[in-house]
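Reviewer 2 asked us to include a model.

Predict the structure of this chain.
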Amino acid sequence: MTEIAIEFRSVFKKFDDFVAIRNLNLLIRKQEFLVLLGPSGCGKSTILNLLAGIEDPTSGEIFVNGKLVNYLLPRYRNVAMVFQSYALYPHMTVAKNIEYPLKSDKGLSRNRDKITKMIAQAAELVDITDQLSKKPPALSGGQRQRVALARALVRDPEVFLMDEPLSNLDAQLRDTMRYHLINLHRKIGKATIYVTHDQQEAMTMADRIVVMNEGSAQQIGTPLEIYNSPVNKFVAGFVGHPRMNFLPGKSLGNRSVQVGEFKLTSSRDTGQKGTPLVVGLRPTDAKSKKGYNNVEGKITAREFTGTDTILTLSSGSIEGVRFRHIGGGSDIEGDTACFSYAPENVHIFNEDGKGRFS
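Predicted model (structure tokens):
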């Protein structure tokens, strides 16, 4: 059986009347890279704060390596946190910044040789051994983030907590740092919880994703599970770019639905005939030719992205439906275009969007 590093058991967190975390039940395995994904204010950072001991749960229990930590001070939980803002001391050298968490260990503070070795090992893991004598103002954003990572690594914690650590970096540097973080995780092999609102970070880095909204875990699963089988309309709309199209429809029975003037067949149940529902179609699942489950309309907008073109179609009662066309294409606004969908790519949700048909 896989060992569990962290467990949240029926955890609630309230700030006065506001419920920030609602009945969180979550198991995180040792060596797992788990991503908390969701919009601002959904509770992602609060979960990290509860685990680190910065906040106390209103109710419920939190365990680290089988030990209840609700009543432990942060320094006794053996977790390390990396922040969005780096939180480096500008007047200290890189080496002194990395060393700082070790100052609370009185026994270690007298062993200078061991401290020097620990600093060197942490710096080597994040490839900043040639920056140890510099101060943070002399470093790039990516180098500062590596210093923050080394400072977290130096104590050899059981759990790493990362709160949007790449959000202050430009797009190209974020891509590079994602690669470094994945490699670093493989080297250290410790449970890591990573907070982001960026679905690309979540999909490319995570072993599993927890999609959060309004304090609740909407879905927990691998990136593939989240993408292919979203449990509700929120998850389906939050994960995937361009965003999934949502179209009002009505069940025709026998796994068929009526959407405007189009009849579509799904591999999923569609409920009883006449049942109102919501049909979800990912722009990236569309095939730019007639086939099965055709949706046809006039092009009202065209967005060239370099490798693809995103076309927006309108037809009768259906407006603003987006499809991906691979390549540049010659279609222009006003032309008629047709896209088709395999039945397994026709998602069916309840009318209120809170559940899906399977």
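The longest strand covers residues 4-15. The CA atoms of residues 111 and 117 lie 10 Å apart. We have added this to the supplementary material.
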